[in-house]
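Study both lines:
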Amino acid sequence: MPILLVVGLGNPGREYELTRHNLGWFILDRLARQRGLTWKRDSRFDVETARSELAGRTLLLLKPLSFMNDSGRPIQQVASFHKVPVTSITAVYDDLTIPLGLCKVSITGSAGGHNGVSSLLEHLGSGFSRYRLGIGPKQPLQMELKDFVLGTFTLEQRTLLEQQLDTLVAGLVLLLQEGPERAMNQLNRRAKHESDQT
């Protein structure tokens, strides 16, 4: 059965659990909970994985336990071990250029200053799907980027995120079931429409 590899980018350790940079992990945790999955540590690759099935394919959820800037290495090792082509990999991660609570899908583009995506591009090359989760805008504007992404959500932001989590998970499932082109048409248009409303 072909494997869909879904990677959440984040940092291990309790101090990073609730930070903006770990939003990819939040979404994978919610998806795993919805499907009644259990995370298992795989020390061969320094990752946590959970397995399910989706539309006749094996869904392999993965959280690298290396730090963000080295996340491409264990992901490449897992992909190589399971013979997963780069086009069957989806990376789920935070994106500062998208408003909080919204998401966009893309395949091409630069890392946009995201160290986890830089590491993925370095180890996998391009061609993986990107499920980008909004954490923007950066406030206050003068705050260092690193301090912002490694900061925690405010109470108001957490409430907004909690309201949107199931929608964000549903968007990821749409991407995995229907493919990036159809997901882009639906989700990117919705994100643009909702951004224009605010």
Q: What stands out?
A: The longest strand covers residues 89-99. Helices lie at 23-34, 72-81, 115-124, 145-149, 155-178, 180-197. Residues 3-197 form a domain with the Rossmann fold fold (CATH 3.40.50.1470). The two ends are 44 Å apart (CA to CA).
